[in-house]
Amino acid sequence: MNDSPGPVVPPITGTAETPQHVTIFDTSLRDGEQSPGCSMSASQKLRFAHALSELGVDVIEAGFPASSEADLEGVRSIVREVRGSSLATLARCHPGDIEACARALEGAAKPRIHVFISTSPLHRQHKLNLDKQQVLERAVAAVEQARKYVDDVEFSCEDALRTEHDYLVEICGAAIAAGARTLNIPDTVGYTTPSEIRALFEYLRDNVRDAHKAVFSAHCHNDLGLAVANSLAAIEGGARQVECTINGIGERAGNCALEELVMALRVRNAYYNATTRIDTRRLVPTSRLLSRITGMVVQRNKAVVGQNAFAHESGIHQHGMLKHRGTYEIMAPEDVGWAQSQMVMGRHSGRAALSDRLQTLGFSLDEARLNSVFAAFKTLAEKKREVFDADLEALVLGADAKAARGYRLVRAHVSTGVSDGSLPTASVQLVDPDGATVSEAAVGDGPVHAMFAALARATGVDLNIDNYHVSSVTTGDDAQGQASVTARVDGVELTGSGTSTDILEASALAWLELANRVVRTQRQPQPVAAPRKVAANA
Ligand code: KIV
Ligand code: ZN
Predict the structure, then answer these.
(1) How far is the CA of 188 from the centre of ligand 2 (A)?
(2) Region labeled Regulatory domain — which residues (predicted)?
(3) Atom of ligand 1 nearest to the CA of 188
């Protein structure tokens, strides 16, 4: 056992010259993963742990090894490969749980054992059937046992926000004396309010014996939608670690969302005087990776990482954005990993935004022509919720639009290779912009990949696809599928979409729509435009 005194926590208030570091403890792989709809295989956990480490997370809670053999194995594989962040594992105050943590963490560069026990009267009586003294003794024994294996031990008082304050002071003091370096004060049921939790952290910092030897940590659940606000208030009260998850996943309504907390600290830096090690440009890619792994979709209007977080549709907002993006954005989309702001073209959009979007699509219209296209656009926007690039092209190109769009799909044949173990293969036949027939075939990792490869060969357009998405637009087993394909071309994000009852055909149509746009944009003389402040994107 190591007797080092543990960290001495700096004063509560940072200053502009000496901002305080807040440790980011990510529990997506533990609290997040144990919630409905978020389970991950061992290899998915490993992949995500690498992403968290690249994001700059200080501590990754990798799992709860005593919960299953699979969880233990999952933690072990993370321990073998992930070196940049501390790796924590969770244990109840049971000797067997702590041993499982120690086994799982063997060989870790920076191991941490996190032990917890319920402290609130409700939990003591109904869940544990233990009195205060018995809970305290178990906590002390667990911290001491964990310290035999590692120096870095965290102790959590489950349901702390509904625990008697004098008892919290007592048990936290005992945990520090037993060797805990981090004291976590969870709002397990998302019950507290910002001013209440701030006052509690101040009280604990002032009253717990040897409080300066430990880092106080907040772990807020989101049952009332207050997890981020409560975590920020805890920081104001002296917390120097926040436990959070990507996209806010976690038990019930989830945990404090890492991306929101980190960006609040960054955008309101002068207010909080606190910093983190997070590479904020990795927030959106990490959020998307988690969505892809779990299949849990991020709500469109979610702060920072939601699709609408930097999207503008109203004419007044679009006009302001085109003049100066500070008018309606408090952070740059690029700083959190988005390619750019989006101008969604709909019935609220104005002429300035339409003109900007048309220029991006390669059309430079004179005043009179722009006026007539704008009038047609407004009529269309009254009928459609969102006006896509293809609709705008059709408005500008009129009746000749179809022909002017370039390559057209005649037929496609795709085989998955599932039945006979052969490679997924696709062959396509197209008509090119000059009316000639082109046929090509290709293999790929999957049927869609093979078809896109065949289309790339047939058209000579090489698309670097950022996003491919299929959703159903009608219901029933004959539902229409809508596919969309997004790629960045010369720094601008372009999207193609296609609809069919056959999702492979919808995908091919989406790919071709995008490829035709690229071909046509590159043929058009580029308009001379003022330096772009935002790029429009439908
Ligand atoms: O919410 C909670 O109390 C927890 C603890 C195990 C830290 O997740
Ligand atoms: Zn929790």
Answers:
(1) 5
(2) 408-538
(3) 1
**All residues at 6 or more sequence positions from 379 whose CB lies less than 8 Å from its CB, including other chains:** none
User: Do 164 and 282 lie in a common domain?
Assistant: yes
pLDDT digits (tens, 9 = 90+) for 292-336: 899 899 999 999 999 999 999 999 999 999 999 999 999 999 999
Stated length of the chain:
538
d(Cα 237, Cα 199) in Å, to the nearest integer? 6
Is 437 among the domain residues? yes
Nearest to 52 by CA among 257, 248, 278: 278
* 203 lies in some domain: yes
Residue numbers of the domain that contains 372: 318-400
| Amino acid occupying residue 409 | L
Q: Which residues contact 530 (CB under 8 A, 6 or more apart)?
A: none
The verdict on 392 and 424 lying in the same domain is no
Give me the residue label for tokens 């001379």. Answer: 528
Question: Does the CB atom of residue 219 touch ligand 1 within 6 A?
Answer: yes
**530 touches 322 (CB < 8 A):** no
Is residue 158 in contact with ligand 1, taking CB distance under 6 Å? yes
Instruction: Evaluate whether 173 touches 210 at the Cβ level (below 8 Å).
Output: yes
| Closest residue by Cα to residue 390 from 365, 357, 415 | 357
| pLDDT at res. 205 | 98
| Amino acid type, 415 | S
Which residue, 339, 310, 322, 305, is CA-closest to 486?
339
